[in-house]
Amino acid sequence: GANSIGTDDLENLLATVDSAYLASPKCYWVMTFMSLVALWKTKDKNGRPILAPQFNVQGEPILYGKPVAICPSMPAISTGNKPIALGDFSRFVIRGVKDSTRVVRFDELWAEYAQIGFEAFLRSDANLQVTPGSPSPIQYIQNQ
Question: Are 139 and 86 in contact (CB under 8 A)?
Answer without folding.
Answer: yes
